[in-house]
Specification:
Layout lengths: L1 E4 L12 E3 L2 H8 L5 E3 L4 H33 L1 E6 L6 E6 L1 H12 L8 E2 L4 E3 L1 E7 L8 E8 L2
Parallel strand pairs: 4-9
Antiparallel strand pairs: 1-2, 1-3, 5-7, 6-8, 8-9
Length: about 150
């Protein structure tokens, strides 16, 4: 069944896209939830307007997130205090939640811990590069300095 996507659907498309899906998937899941409508003759113009509106909305959001990213980069180094031993090894680790809290308190920009991408938790004192994914293609890299408490 050919359908026009009304709201973003993972692995299917964005608003305004026309997709071919299984009849049961469309009838039982997508249409009752208002995610798609049947692609009929008059609906093609509707699909084009949905696509334009979605594009405008995404570009506006991207501009807003780029401004937030520039504010984060202007802050410079984010300092995080943690308990450490004599040789600079931490007694625990600095997690994405710790970094998100530090960014919020030092820059005034609140970010979610899910947006902070660490390959592995930070377990040593020093400077580390951390990527923050704010939006599609907007990923500033922050410098996080871990210092020993006390």
């Amino acid at each position: 069944m050919k359908v026009i996507i009304q709201k973003p659907v993972d692995k299917l498309g964005n608003p305004g896209d026309i997709a071919d899906v299984a009849d049961g998937y469309a009838r039982n899941y997508l249409i009752p939830r208002g995610l798609v409508i049947r692609a009929e003759k008059g609906a093609v113009k509707h699909a084009e307007s949905l696509k334009r509106a979605h594009g405008a909305r995404v570009s506006k959001q991207k501009g807003e997130y780029e401004a937030v990213a520039s504010r984060l980069i202007q802050v410079g180094v984010i300092r995080v205090e943690a308990r450490a031993g004599d040789e600079g090894k931490l007694f625990g680790s600095v997690t994405a939640a710790d970094i998100a809290d530090a960014v919020g308190s030092q820059s005034g920009v609140q970010i979610d811990k899910k947006d902070v991408h660490l390959d592995e938790p930070i377990r040593s004192v020093g400077t580390h590069e951390v990527r923050v994914r704010l939006f599609h293609e907007v990923e500033p890299v922050l410098t996080v300095e871990v210092v020993a408490q006390g």
